[in-house]
Amino acid sequence: MLRTLAIAAALTIGLANSWASAQEAQTATFAGGCFWCVESDFDQIPGVLKTVSGYTGGSLDNPSYKQVTAGGTGHLEVVEITFDPSQVTYDELLTAFWHSVDPTDAGGQFCDRGESYTTAVFVHGEEQRRLAEASKQIATRELGQEIVTPIREATAFYPAEEYHQDYYQKSSVRYRYYRWACGRNNRVEEVWGDSAYKGIPDHG
């Protein structure tokens, strides 16, 4: 009887701890050009629990990749990041974001051009907005140039098609070639120098 009660108590505590962890998880949403690259960069950061490539910011419900990249929907390619703030702060994610993109480019990112590939920080609530605005000012001073990346209110998020999820893992050779050919790492290093965050190498 006592053993049964102990097991039941342990299960209850375990479920409570799992629920508490789930309650503590927070969401960040960044548009940084190709979502394959953004996903691969943030998956490497300790404390990031999950990344999902998708679309947000536009007016069309449940858009497809073809519709978004064709333009006119208002949607951007984004990655929705679930993170544990006890392991990584929103400020730290913002720093990684700024240093992994070219925030001076209003026409897209690297070889990917057009509205859907532009950068943005989509904030979830006023506290994220305050932190994002402060982080943008710090990044602007560090860069010494105007940052054109807007800070926008998060709206409906639509996950991208399944083949886009974890593309950098499922099609690693093609992904690495694309990232190299697109010049992403080289441009990030050109913009940020030694403080560039380039995620996984182009090759290897």
Features:
single chain, 204 residues, alpha+beta, Peptide Methionine Sulfoxide Reductase, Chain A, six-stranded mixed sheet, 8 helices, 8 strands, 44% helix
CATH architecture: 2-Layer Sandwich
Uncertain runs are 1-22
Mean pLDDT value = 90
What's the quaternary structure here?
Answer: single chain
Number of domains: 1
How helical, in percent, are the residues?
A: 40-55%
Instruction: Tell me the CATH superfamily.
Output: Peptide methionine sulphoxide reductase MsrA
Task: Report the sheet-strand fraction.
Answer: 15-25%
CATH third-level topology: Peptide Methionine Sulfoxide Reductase, Chain A
Largest sheet: 6 strands, mixed
Q: Tell me the total number of β-strands.
A: 8
Biggest sheet, spatial arrangement of strands: 7-6-1-3-2-8
* Integer-rounded radius of gyration: 19 Å
The dominant shape is: globular
Model description:
By secondary structure, this protein is of the alpha+beta class. The protein has a single domain (24-195), classed as Peptide Methionine Sulfoxide Reductase, Chain A (2-Layer Sandwich). It contains 8 helices and 8 strands, in the order αβαβαβαβββαββααα. Strands 7-6-1-3-2-8 form a 6-stranded mixed sheet. Strands 4-5 form a two-stranded antiparallel ribbon. Helix 4 runs parallel beside helix 5 (126-143). It is globular, with a radius of gyration of 19 Å.
